[in-house]
Amino acid sequence: MANEFYALLGRMRNITRWGLMRNTFSENVQEHSHQVAVLAHALALIRREILHLPGPDPEKCAVAALYHDASEILTGDMPTPIKYYNPELRNAYKAVEKVAGNKLLDMLPQELRASYEAYVLESDRELEPIVKAADKLAAHIKCIEELKAGNSEFSTAATQTLEALRGACREELTWFLDNCLEPFSRNLDQL
């Protein structure tokens, strides 16, 4: 039996995000997952090394972020306004994501399944807050980049994502927003 897991992961680049928005540049799930991994790693390091707070292992956060949207290979990307429209729809979509995640895990050799399960199913509650914060931060950065390119389509999303980030009450996230976010609005010559 062939193990299709890795071949399907390569298809993450074919799943486009922000489908309801007019984009200046498209973003796919593979690019997004990489950015979320970088940000999750950074947030966990900030928590541990700068704020001296207990928290999850930064490397595990990065790996979890790489796989946090893996189920979208099979489900596609559900737009946020639909996904979170009401609790029933959100719960139904979570169930679909779990089925898709298990289908992906079934494509691995049995000896490897346990090593991927918590990441693909997003079931490690210690890693979840960091990955969720990084995911929202990546969305906000996308909004900043679109606004910088003159695309006002993202103005409301930028406001909403920033409010959500500020409201998350995560010290490492607040530190990142206060110390690292502003350069994302600069051009290359200003960096």
Explain the overall architecture.
This protein has a single domain (about 5-180), classed as Hypothetical protein af1432. It is globular, with a radius of gyration of 17 Å. The chain has about 190 residues and is mainly alpha-helical. The protein has helices at about 5-10, 30-50, 60-65, 70-75, 80-85, 85-105, 110-120, 130-150, 155-165, 170-180. The mean pLDDT is about 95.
Question: What's a concise summary of this model?
Answer:
The chain has 191 residues and is mainly α. Helix content is 62%, strand content 0%. The protein has a single domain (5-181), classed as Hypothetical protein af1432 (Orthogonal Bundle), CATH 1.10.3210.
Distance between the termini: 50 Å
Order of helices and strands: HHHHHHHHHH
What would you give as the CATH superfamily?
Answer: Hypothetical protein af1432
Secondary-structure arrangement, i.e. CATH architecture: Orthogonal Bundle
> How does the helix and strand content classify structurally?
mainly alpha
What is the typical, i.e. mean, pLDDT?
94
Q: Please, how many helices? A: 10
Could you outline the blueprint of secondary structure elements for this entry?
Layout lengths: L4 H5 L19 H22 L7 H10 L4 H4 L4 H4 L3 H19 L4 H11 L7 H21 L6 H13 L3 H9 L12
Helix pairs in contact: 2-3, 2-8, 2-10, 3-8, 6-7, 8-9
